[in-house]
Amino acid sequence: MKWRSFWVALTVMAGVAMAAAGPLGAQPLPSSRDALQFSYAPLVKKVSPAVVNIYTATTTRVQRRLPFPFPGMPQDGGNRVQNSLGSGVLAKADGLIVTNAHVVRGADEIRVVLADRREFDAKLVIQDDRYDLALLRIDGAGEKFPFLELRDSDSVEVGDIVLAIGNPFGLSQTVTSGIVSAVARSAGGVNDSSFFLQTDAAINPGNSGGALVSLDGRLIGINTAIYSQTGGSVGIGFATPSNIVARLIETGTSGGRIVRPWLGISMQPVTADLASGLNLPRPVGLVVKDVFGGGPGERAGIKRNDVIIGLRDQRIDDEASLRFRLATLSVGETVPVKVLRAGKELTLQLPLAAPPEDPPRDKSVLEGRQPLNGATVVNLSPAVAEELGMIEWKPGVAVVEVKAGSYASRFLRVNDMVIAINGQEVKSVQDLKKRIAAGVTSMSIGREGMVSTVQFR
C-alpha cells in the first residue's frame, strides 16, 4: 500500500472532574440483545478526568529581511513566541503524563490543564523521538491524581470496540467510537517502530496525543497519526500501542531509554520465491542470512536459513513486527523463539543482550575540498544500528548527520551507508578518511537496502 501522507494532529482535552483518585473502573460488555441499548456516558465520565490539556510555548529568533536595507539598520527581527496545543494522559497517580513527543518537541514552557481546569507547570521527564512518545510530570504537592491503567495491547483483537477522545479542529472535548481495524499495522515514516493499532474511530487533526481506550476503561494506545489525503478523517487512524508506552514508563522514569535487545543475526523477509526455495507452503516470517559468532542467536542455536516465525507467543511476519516485539522486551531476559528448519518447527531459548558498541563509533565530521564535506560519519556497530533504528547490523560506515547546504547534502542522507570509494570497500571511518585523502572519483551509497553509485568529475 502506498502511504501518501500522514497528518499528525495536536490534541486538547477537556473533561469532567473526578473526586476519587486511582485506576478508573471497568464497564461490563453487553450479554444480551436488550443490553445492547447502552450508553458510553458512564465510561466517558470515568476516563476523561485522566486526560489533560497541554499548552507549549517555543521562542524562535526572527530574521528580518529587507529588500533594500540601509546601512546600520538592524536585520534582527527579535523573538517570536509560537504556541501549540496538545493532550496527554495521566498514567500514574503521582502526576506522570504520557503524550506524543511532537506535542512538546522544542518547547521552552509546558503548561498542563486538568479536566477540573486547574493548571500546573510540567517538566519533561524523557522524550523518545524514535517512538514519538514523551513523559511529563506535574507536582501536585502529594495529591493523588486520577489515572488510566494500561492494558496489554497484545490482548486487543480486531473488531474490539474502542473510544478515541480528543479535540479535533480546536473543538471542545470530543469522543468518537469505532473498532480496532488492525492490530499490527505497519505505517512507515510515522515513528521508528512502524507498528500501530489501527482504528476507524474518527481521528482528525487535534486528536494526536489523546487516549484510545477499550470498553474496560483502560488505555490501549496513544493516538498518533492518521492517513488522509485531505486532512480530515477517512477512518484510518493509528495509535502507538500501550506496550510501548509501558516500556517508556519503565525505562524513562529511571532515566533510561528504550533499547531494543540485539539478536546477533541478520535477516530478510520471506518472499514467494524464497518460500518456494525453502519448501514453505506460503511466505511467512524472516529468514536468517547470517549468524554472528558469539552473539545471542548463536548461543540460542539459530542457524543460517532458519525462518523465524514467532517470538514468545506472538507471530513474526516482517521486520516491523520483530522491531516492535524487541522494543517491548528487556535486556537480560531469555525468551522462546519459534523457527522453521528443514520443514520442522523448533522452539529455541533466545537470550536477549544489549547491543555492543564494537567497533567504537569514532564519530568524525568530514571537512575539506572533497565530496563528503559536511557529513558526520561513525563506525557502524550493533549499538549504533539500534540508535539509528536499523533492524540488522553489518560492519561499515554510517552517516549520522549532514550539514544543511553542504556539498554532501546533495546526495547523502542520515542513515546512509558509505559502501565504497572508487570501487574499493569502506570498512571503517579511518579507512574512509584514507580513501578520501587519495581522491574521490566515485562513491557507492547504501540506502534502504539499495546501493547506488555517484560519479564525480
Task: Summarize the structure in words.
The chain has 457 residues and is mainly beta. It has 3 domains: 247 residues, Beta Barrel (Thrombin, subunit H); 87 residues, Pdz3 Domain; 92 residues, Roll (Pdz3 Domain). 12% of the residues lie in helices and 36% in strands. The chain is built from 8 helices and 28 strands. Strands 22, 23, 24, 25, 26, 27 and 28 form a 7-stranded antiparallel sheet that branches. A 6-stranded antiparallel beta barrel has the order 10-11-12-15-14-13. A hairpin with a 2-residue loop joins β20 and β21. The longest helix is centred in the middle third of the chain and has 11 residues. The radius of gyration is 25 Å and the shape is globular. The N terminus is likely disordered.
State the name of the first-level CATH class of the largest domain: Mainly Beta
Into which percent range does the helicity of residues fall?
10-25%
Sheet-strand content, in percent, reads: 35-45%
Major pleated sheet: 7 strands, antiparallel
Termini Cα gap? 39 Å
What is the CA-atom radius of gyration, in angstroms?
25 Å
- Which CATH architecture of the largest domain would you pick? Beta Barrel
Overall residue-averaged pLDDT value: 84
Total strands: 28
